[in-house]
Amino acid sequence: MGRSDRNHRNNEVSFGRRPESSGLAGIRYELLSVVHTEDSESLLTDRQRECLMVAHQRGYFEVPRQCNLTELGDALGVDKSTASETIRRATDRVVAQYFLSSWIVRPRYTAQ
User: Does the pTM exceed 0.70?
Assistant: First the structure.
């Protein structure tokens, strides 16, 4: 197991558990943000919601993809880099919400 694998596994902390019992004793970390909402409408911006919906409808998430970022950007009226950034930020919010609702936190930390 490589060093990055060990560090990644040591990052996982469940709410309600002390750092000592989760393998994080002696590791300093800063929780940058916690976002939790029961209101799915406020999770994403209108633009993020639109981009994810269009990406899903056009098969961007299918394997193999049914459209690429250039085509998706054209459909949304934006550059492919803007489409990519918006989809990545929206996906990150959805995934973070999933982990928070499962009571899993992956803090960013710095070693002492």
Answer: no
